[in-house]
Amino acid sequence: MTRKLIYVDNAATTKISEDCLKAMMPYLTEEYGNPSSIYSIAHTAKFALENARAKIAKSLGANPQEIYFTSCGTESNNWAIKAVAYLKAKEGKKNIITTSFEHHSVLNAAKHLEKNGFNVTYLPVNQDGVLNPKDLEKALNENTALVSIMYANNEIGTIQNIGAISKICKEHSVVFHTDAVQAVGHVKIDLSEENIDMLSMSGHKINAPKGVGVLYVKKSTKITNLMHGGGQERTLRPGTENVAYIVGLAAALQNATKNICEKENKVKILRDMLLTGIIKNIKKVHINGSLESRLAGNLNISFEGIEGESLLLMLDSYGICASSGSACTSNS
Q1: Does 261 qualify as catalytic in the annotation?
Q2: Cβ-Cβ contacts under 8 Å for 6 (sequence gap 6 or more)
Q3: Distance of alpha carbon 236 from alpha carbon 227, whole angstroms
Q4: In terms of DSSP bridges, do strands 213-217 and 67-70 run parallel, antiparallel, or are they unpaired?
Q5: How many Å apart are CA 70 and CA 214, to the nearest integer?
Q6: 119-123, strands of its sheet edge to edge
Q7: What digits encode the pLDDT tens for the residues 109-135?
Q8: Which residue among 38, 94, 232, 317 is the one 20 to 30 A from 280 at the CA level?
Q9: CA 238 to each of CA 85, 278, 322: distance values in angstroms, whole numbers, following the listed order
Q10: Please, which residues have CB within 8 angstroms of residue 88's CB and are 6 or more apart in sequence?
Q11: Catalytic one among 20, 72, 321, 328?
Q12: What is the pLDDT of residues 296-316, one digit of tens each?
């Protein structure tokens, strides 16, 4: 008898959708040209690349020239934070502000900058897992180069008040970056209406492949290379573009953002049904983080007197895939 698989760890990664795979297949097989070359199959690849860029920009409310392709959210975060930090350091601004519960790609990038002469302020969040924008305003000073605060937390799923945070940054003329890897495709985001200077996203959270991401950089925001090479991505992110994965990302993002509010409301109903069942049948259960300011598909709970790893192994024996934290921290 085949064991039924119940996969409830989509915050870690998602299955590639049929539409995404279908869009990718031509560029994994016959349309294999390098988009930087000059012959016909290269032109086909180049067109697919720029068409995907336009689709992604439209889905996010951005301009195609503001979309840069990367390998993942970690690369996008590192590029955004380090590039702005080193640029602003030339103006004497060497203070970076973030929160204490960012993804490790942000926290470790910040630690790297600390070792290289920067001052980093790690703001706390309240017991609901939400940053008070007033704490950010108090922390800002004339030497602040960059604020990097995640859109939605990758573990407890709490959504930050990005509108208030970005407004404060704009009023103080400070560059604002948000790690939106967990939010894109699950929260309605329109960059044409939000004061976000840079935004990171990753394909494998929205039914696209692992190994492709995006860094959005507003036209007015100056940024330098993270690495150096050829002329791809307007020379700012060199390296031959992963055309198949980029095309797949565009298809997945279009699907994820279509009727997003309606879909997320359905997911929220299912999440709340699960929570009700757990509370009804299990004693000493604690919900981690705000239920109001939370991703619809996220439920993070603690059980008194039970060790997390043992619980996950037991769930796995029943075919249930769950997690006690970020996949990126499972080996640390």
Answers
A1: no
A2: 318, 319, 320, 321
A3: 8
A4: antiparallel
A5: 5
A6: 67-70, 213-217, 198-202, 175-179, 144-148, 95-99, 119-123
A7: 999 999 999 999 999 999 999 999 999
A8: 317
A9: 20, 49, 37
A10: 94, 145, 146, 175
A11: 328
A12: 999 999 999 999 899 999 999
